[in-house]
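hiii so my PI (J.) wants the whole complex modelled not just the main chain, which honestly fair. so below is everything: two entries, each one labled with what it is. i double checked the lines twice but i was tired so who knows lol
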Amino acid sequence: MQGAKILDERKDFIMFKDSCCGDGKINCEKESVSGAVSQRACVYCGARVVLNPITDAFHIVHGPIGCASYTWDIRGSLSSGSELYRNSFSTDLREEDIIFGGAKKLAAAIDEIVEKNSPKLIFVYATCIVGVIGDDVEAVCRKAEEKYKIRVIPVKAPGFSGTKSLGYKLACDAIMELILPHKDIPKTGGINIIGDFNLAGEMWIIKNYLNAIGLNTVSTITGDANYESLIKAPSAGLNIVQCAGSSVYLAKRMEEEMGIPFIKVSFFGIEDTTNSILRIAHAIGDENAIKRAEEFTKERSARAKEFISKYKPKLEGKKAAIYVGGGFKAISLIRQFNEMGIKTVMVGTQTGKKDEYEIIAKIVEKDTVVLDDANPSELEAFMKEKGADILVGGVKERPLAYKLGIAFCDHNHERKHALAGYEGVENFTKEVNLSLNSPVWGYVKG
Amino acid sequence: MASNYVNLNVNPCKMCMPMGAMTAFYGIRGCVSILHGSQGCSTYIRRHMATHYNEPVDIASSSLTEQGTVFGGESNLIKGLENLIKLYNPEVIGVATTCLAETIGEDINGIIKKFLALHPDAKAKIIPVSSAGYGGTQYEGFFKALKAIVSNIEMSPEKNDMINIIVPLISPADTRHIKDICKKMGLNCIILPDISENLDGGYEKNYSKLPRGGTSIEEIAKMGGARYTLELSAFVPEENSPAKYLKEAYGVPYERLDLPVGLEFTDAFIEKLVSLGGEMTDEIKDMRKRYLDAMIDSHKYNAECRAVVFGEPDFASSVVKLCCENGALPVVAATGSVCKEFREKLGSYIKPVAEIAMEENFAVLDDIDFEKIENLALELKANLMIGSSDGRKISERHGIELIRCAFPVHDRVGGQRTRILCYEGSLELMDKIANSILARKEENFRHEAYEKYFDKKAGKEVENQKMDLKTENLQKTLTHPCYTCSAGKYARIHLPVAPKCNIQCNYCVRKYDCPNESRPGVTTEILSPREAFEKYALIKEKMDNLKVVGIAGPGDALANFEQTKETLKLIKEYDKEVTFCLSTNGLMLPMHAKELIDLGVSHVTVTMNAVDPKIGAKIYKHIDYMGVRYEGETGAAILLANQIAGLKYLTSNGAICKVNIVMLKGINDGHIEEVVKTAKELGCEITNIMQLIPVKGSAFEELPLVSNKELMEIRKKCEVHMKQMHHCRQCRADAIGTLDNDVSIQYRSMLNDDISKAKTLKKKFAVASKSGMLVDQHFGHADEFYIYESDGENARFVEKRAVRKYCSGADDCGESAEKMDLILKAVGDCDAVIALRMGDSPMRKLKEKGIEIYITYDSIEHAVKNAVESAIKL
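here's the output for the full assembly
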């Protein structure tokens, strides 16, 4: 901590694991400290991340152009069909719209889209100023729905209205609005994959696993999803939730309002992947699927373990720092690093929950720093102090790591290779090795 | 490895000695060269150099002819020198031999002597080089010329303060960079050769064909008195080394360094300059810092690089070194020159980085051609090539990007400005490497992941299902009396549930309601869906051969879609085998086509009287679409577009479609063939051309009738395009066809699958988990429990229980005080509870109930197994 500039009001958000006390007392689930340079994003961002992978939807950002520009096709969600979602649509509000209101412009924008295309689904994201200037986005959307007999769903997500988590919730509500009218379609007993956004094809990997054990996927929310596939979601017999942080709320609503039970799963790391596949088979209760799942996971986990053991001599004894969005991902990364023989010396999250920090405190070693909503100066100070060799984080943290001579691994939406499933274990291990053991560090440190 | 020729060079990875010699002479001030040989040599070399440097390149030739070849080229060369002087008045003339000159045994020293004897007042310094094309590559030619330059120019004997820097073939921009660095460090250096100006000149109003830049004779004359020589080449043979010559002839000490590309080689170069008294400036330090920073920024991308590096030994060696320092793996390092040291040295650079990448195979080869390089590149899965534009064929054929940073670059601009030397040049090259990897990634990662992970067979199944549906529907066609002439024994029923119409045809009036009249659009009653169903059920009971239910108005089936849908649904529930047939004008078809398929409608008839809105406008008075009334061509165009879109969807999703055409004399009779062709293109099965039934009060009341003969003729004409219907009876909207025929009823047997399972003794666990993966929640905080069973061997997930479901009434579900009761209810039937932590009170209560308790942090599955083994029992 020597030399590290920590703001007084930030001190409670930092915790040191010591030998006697693993109680995990940390301040979290609070608003960011003003002026502290938080790494967090906004409500609109949260909503956009969850909904954007719907490939054949028009995602209209209603507001001034910035929000649309900064979120235009920067995510790694893949599509097996339409590429529409990789476009940016914005009402690009100007000064006169701010004065006279932007609702007319939005309505006209929707008219144009309908005229030039045959959209089935439009999302309208209302960003910060929209509510302030008094645009009734809901009314515009409702009118358009009536006029065109298509779905036009408003997502009122002004950035200032909360954290990214609220954006996730708004997105889940938007999905419910889309699928609720179809809630009485006949049940088929298949599975919905919820909370996977098909980054680098990860949803496809999970779907392949289900396929391999003889289970049918109904709908994927929202990775590689489209209008037709989404409205089938109510016919599923089970929801599996991969990214609980963003999507468990949707699963809960579907359970309550449609009677579809859900289970949480995780496909990060060998252990989680294996347990998740088995759990799904058990939940469905099909003896054949259970048998196939047992065989499948046995074979694939053995292969993945062998892969890691080859790399382990190159990785053992290294020190990792983690700074990610949610607590569960941080926990999962600590466990994955353990599998590689890498010790986690610093761990932080943007929006971790109290009980998640408690778990973190339990599983890290003595002297590990735990941070909530950290800023760059803290990250710098603690990575230096703890002698981290690699940082796992988002792209925002990358230049900092490099400036400090620390290896880096991207575990965010922009990743270009799959980190989920057994395939992801291999990719992650390779990436960690190539960065950690790059000859470049020899020159930097020498 | 694929076969490579032993006695054949396929696609050469090198050039000839005169080329090198000519380039070297271009770095001498006021120098123009002459090639003693045939004209071609000079022309090709000029062309080669000019396209790379984008500068005029003037090289004379002695233009040996057959006579000169037979009798010696002496007079040719003398003449050549004379003219050269006249034209250019150069200070220096380089005379290089070629294959031809060397082969015929030309004594150029003798010829030059003769020339000087003939022209005693000639001022130009003439420097001869023996550079047979076959004697080596441009690499050797280059140094031979340099050696000739230093050994032919008379040196000033007195010692001076200069440092000689001998460089191999580097770009003009790199030459400038070297000069600049020396200057920055406060050193007086003589760069030999200095092509910085002559092969990368700026725009000037008065073009000077005589190169005005370069190393001057005066400077060269000082090289013998210089205090040191640095030769930036690790591979030049000693006999061609200018540095060695200067040492031997004038005692100038020297050191040969690697071409300063990459960190270590540049460090060595800069350190050497410092040791020679150069000042290590902040600016140079900053350059190094920036490069290091860039190395870090890009190392992840570089780590994915599998490069093929090819070119002159110094170039290839130094670039390979740069790659290795950055974690990029050079899978192929190749030079076209013969160079044993190249092979030995480069292996030691590559090995460490190959080990990091867990890669055993890489190739270092000299004296190589592009065929071999190509085979190796494929075999070793290269993803990048670094060298000259000569690698472009491989690049194009196999989609491996090529970084063009060595001479020659023919298919891009800027070869003369390409930098690879010292920190800044290294940084530029490294950016290109990283960007190439990035570009590839950005372009391909979606597709690659799609190919790798997306299950395309799943899509095929859908396709097959569509095909299956079509087969099934075609089967139904066999019992559909309207579609199959020979199916007359089967019956059909038209249910009049659709009163509204959304278009007005000029031949139609629907206000009549006469039971004796038989034509489309007529019915005696309108049925509600429920009534229609009851009617069907009643008739079906009496009429086993009733196969087809049709909705044919009296309006438009889709203008009354809710009624149509409801009717079909009711009947489908009652009779799964029924064939649904529907006729429509097609206006609302795109909106409902998918639902029709889903409802099981197998046969759809669309009345499409024209495929040209101009003609359509004469037939349709107006259409009512999306709340707007459209007339004339606009209306007809909308109708047509929707008919086409709808039919296309239906036919591509397995439905059997028929197109009805009402033949209207003088209006569409000449157009019918076009309509039939369109129906064919849309994938329809059959068209039905019908006579107009003139209706009183309709706009076409007075239209002349079509005779049977005319009808038969047009059907015959259209028969070549697609199947025609000949047996249409133009039914009413409530028609019921009754043809007697027995159909056996098939009963489906239901199998009772009563497999009783032996019950084994199992323990049931309730696990408090927030994440769903781990035991990570307080017992008292749990909103849900993961219920597991274990028989002692395997843990098996049973269900997830939400605590709130154990709430039996409002009183029961108050604030947290009562929550514990719900929790206890939720786990009441379990043998054990596993949680992260638990309060004393619930612990007591559970124990009272005889429920075991396990406190742990672990993955759920593991914790259950452990609990069974009672490893952590409290």
